[in-house]
Amino acid sequence: MSGGGQDPTLPSSASSHALAAAGGVGLGGDGPRLAPIVFPAEVQAAIAEVLPSEDPLDDPDFSTVDYINDLFPTEQSLSTLDDTVADMRYRVQCVDDDIRRIVRNQTGAGGDAASALSEAQSAIVQLFSQIRDIKQKAGESEAMVRDITRDIKQLDTAKRNLTAAITTLNHLHMLVGGVATLQRQTGDRQYGEASKLLQGLMQVLEHFKGYSEIPQIKELSDQVHDTRAVLAKQINHDFQSALGEGGATSNKSFVPTKQLAEACLVVDVLEPKTKRSLLKWLVSRELTEYGIIFAEGEDGTWLDKIDNRLAAKIQSNSNLILW
C-alpha cells in the first residue's frame, strides 16, 4: 500500500475483495448488508424515463461483485483502495444529505399542501357561491325578459287595435260625410263628382262588410244603395228626356252634353244591369226607324232595296258608335 497506515475499521484490501466477492459485510461498517429493493419493470422504466442516469449504481441489474471487480481488476490496483473508500464515503454522505434535505422539503411541502388544499377548498366554496348567485341572477333576468316580452306583446296588440280603430273611424267619417254629399250631388246632377265619390264609398262599404249587423252601419249602407238606385233611374230619365221617346227621328238636332258624358261615368260604377238596360234602350231607339222602314211588307224589304237597307244599318251603327 502506498501512503500511511490502514484504517482499523476497514478490512484489508484482500479481505475486502474476498468479502465483496463472497457477498459478506459491506464497506460502510461491520453490520449486515440490507437486501436490495427490487421494483417492477414498469416502475424501473418510468424512473429511467423521468431520471435518466449512466451511473452503474443506478442500474436495476447492479452487481456488487462486478462493480468491485471493475474497480480493482488486479492486485496492483488495490493501491487506490483508500482513495476509493474515501470517495465512496463522500458519495454516501452526499446521498444522506440529499435524503435529509428532501425529507425536510417534503415535511414543509406537506404543510404547504395542507394550506393549498385549504385554500382550494375555500376557493371552491367561493366559486360555488358565485355560481349560485349567477344562476339566481340569470333566473331573475329570464323572468324580467318574460315580463318585457309580455308587455311588448300587449303593446303590439294595443297598437294593432288602435290602428284598426283609427282606420275604422276614418272610414266611418268618410262614409257619413260621403253619403250626405252623394245625395246632394245626385239631386244637383253633378255626375262627374258623384262617380268618383260613389266609387270611394263602395270601397269603404267593403271595409264595413263585417260590421253590417250594426244598425248605424246598415242604415248608411242602405242609404248608399238607395242613392245608387236613384242615380240609375235618374240617368235613364235624363237620357230619355234628352233623346226623346220617338226614336232616332224624334230629336235630330240632339248634341251630347258634358252632363250626359259624366252620367256615363256613373253608369260604369253602378250595377252592370243598369248599364245593360241603358244600352238595350239606346239600341232599340236607334233601330226604331230602321224597323219601321224595313218592316215586313214594306217596299224597302225587296231585294232591289238592299243597298238602302245596308246604308240605314250603317247609319244606325254609326250613331251607336258615337255613343
Plain-language structure description:
The chain is an all-alpha fold and 323 residues long. The chain has a domain at 287-323. It is built from ten helices and no strands. 72% of the residues lie in helices and 0% in strands. It starts with 12 loop residues before the first helix and ends with a helix.
Furnish the topology, listing elements before pairings.
Elements: H1 13-22, H2 41-50, H3 64-71, H4 81-187, H5 191-207, H6 215-243, H7 258-269, H8 272-286, H9 288-293, H10 306-322
Helix pairs in contact: 1-3, 4-5, 4-6, 5-7, 6-7
Assembly classification: single chain
Mind telling me the C-alpha Rg? 64 Å
Are there runs of 5+ residues with pLDDT below 50, and where? 1-30, 246-254
Global geometry: rod-shaped
Number of helices: 10
Salient structural properties:
323 residues, mainly alpha, disordered N terminus
